[in-house]
Design brief:
The chain has about 425 residues and is an alpha/beta fold. Helices cover about 35% and strands about 25% of the residues. Strands 7, 8, 9, 10, 11, 12, 13, 14, 15, 16 and 17 form an 11-stranded mixed beta sheet that branches. Strands 3-2-1-4-5-6 form a 6-stranded parallel beta sheet, sandwiched between helices.
Length: about 425
């Protein structure tokens, strides 16, 4: 087989990782792929800066169209991020018969259905392992390794920035704002950290994971998304006292009446392996009916970790170049004409246990009023803790853990409790998952 030529759309952090890996491990990769893989050209923003990187043999250009229409290029690797011009360039590459690898989770989560349809029409492959959890081969594991299983649920720490912040709050008792500033200084968080700390980045990744796990169309708009900016160090400390850790999870559950798709802070028993995934690391826990629980752990970002996933996808494409399109692994694990119409559930229909924290006046009858509200809504209380007042304060924190219940009932309870004269301010709610 002749050498396979690759065009890069982007030569930033991940693009440099790809070029470095292919230069360093090219002979080993060729032994796996069956031919040499050569980067012919790369789209860059700054020609002088790109040339100074010293990647010999890679022609740099500021014309993305020239890369995706080059007849010598077999595979286009998109690492630009965002919607445009990434979407237009990917669709153009497909139209010109190029296979595509993308590290752009937003592109797949929001536009994947359109992209896969275009790819099917042209008989080309779109691979996206690096779009979820960086260097962890979780897409391949769920799509191929667990193909014999009916997957009941999956839960993942799939944003390293959020995990770093919660780890620092847990281990050092720091405030959210303080740790966020450090994460920005270290380069873990952007100047505008909204995508990371408010769960949008994780929601993109959960959309993809849920689709390949359950065989449903990509539906980013159906994901309930809640960030970590309102988690306090008091919540973190109370959770620890009760034997839990707070993690920012993406959770997808298959139920008879629909699919739960949600990203939010979550209390997890401290004994669970995933509760001890710290720093910027990622982990995804998947429950299959045949294999049971499996967990996939590793770096969720970075130049060479993500570049490793990009190169692995390139190798997979090279291995299938001689295979008819119908004999390739389906993009979303299930055959395109067999995707399920199982609906995504509204948040009120979610089922979970809950951590509730409120501030109450320290006087007789307060707990009775609160538990009466819970009882009338058939919410069972697993544990209730009233902390001691501080100094001369007449206000005390009250923490409750519920058993599993529909979220709509919890929302009603919170609304009623907040109206009690003896309760001050808003009730803090954090979902709980045993992941057992």
């Amino acid at each position: 087989m002749k050498s396979v030529k690759v065009g890069l759309l982007g030569l930033g952090t991940v693009g440099q990782g790809v070029a470095t890996i292919l230069a360093r491990n090219g002979d080993e990769i060729a032994r796996r792929a069956g031919c040499d893989i050569v980067i012919k050209s790369a789209l860059v923003r700054n020609l002088g800066k790109a040339e100074a990187l010293g990647f010999d043999g890679i022609a740099v250009t500021q014309d993305g169209k020239a890369v995706v229409t080059d007849p010598d290029i077999d595979i286009v690797v998109e690492m630009m991020g965002g919607d445009e011009p990434a979407l237009s360039l990917v669709l153009s590459a497909i139209e010109h018969g190029k296979h595509v690898v993308t590290a752009n989770k937003a592109l797949i989560a929001v536009h994947g259905n359109q992209i896969f349809s275009a790819a099917a029409d042209k008989g080309v492959v779109v691979a996206f392992e690096p779009a979820v959890a960086g260097g962890i081969p979780v897409i391949k594991a769920v799509r191929e390794g667990l193909a014999a299983n009916r997957i009941a649920w999956l839960a993942g720490i799939i944003n390293g920035t959020g995990n770093f912040i919660l780890t620092e709050m847990t281990q050092k008792g720091r405030d959210f704002a303080d740790v966020l500033a450090e994460a920005q200084a270290l380069g873990y968080a952007e100047a505008d950290p909204t995508f990371d700390v408010e769960g949008i980045d994780a929601a993109h990744k959960l959309t993809i994971l849920a689709s390949i796990a359950f065989g449903i169309p990509l539906q980013f708009d159906a994901v309930y998304t809640e960030g970590i900016s309102k988690v306090t160090r008091d919540d973190v400390a109370f959770a620890e006292e009760l034997g839990y850790r707070i993690k920012h999870l993406g959770v997808a559950k298959m139920r008879d009446d629909g699919v739960e798709l949600r990203v939010h802070p979550t209390l997890i028993p401290a004994s669970r392996l995933i509760a001890n995934v710290n720093g910027v690391m990622n982990a995804v826990l998947v429950q299959g009916d045949a294999v049971g629980p499996t967990m996939y752990y590793g770096p969720g970002a970075g130049s060479e970790p993500t570049g490793s996933s990009v190169v692995a996808d390139i190798v997979d494409i090279v291995r299938t170049l001689s295979a008819a399109p119908g004999h390739r692994v389906p993009n979303l694990a299930f055959q395109s004409d067999s995707l399920s119409s199982h609906p995504a559930l509204a948040p009120d229909a979610f089922e979970s246990s809950y951590y509730l924290r409120l501030t109450a006046i320290d006087q007789p009858g307060v707990l009775a009023d609160i538990t009466r509200v819970m009882g009338e809504l058939d919410i069972s209380i697993e544990a209730i803790v009233q902390k001691e007042p501080v100094g001369d304060s007449v206000e005390v924190p009250v923490i409750m853990l519920t058993r599993q219940v529909r979220e709509g009932a919890v929302n009603s309870a919170i609304a009623q409790i907040e109206k009690l004269a003896s309760v001050k301010g808003e009730v803090t709610r954090i979902r709980m998952e045993t992941l057992g």
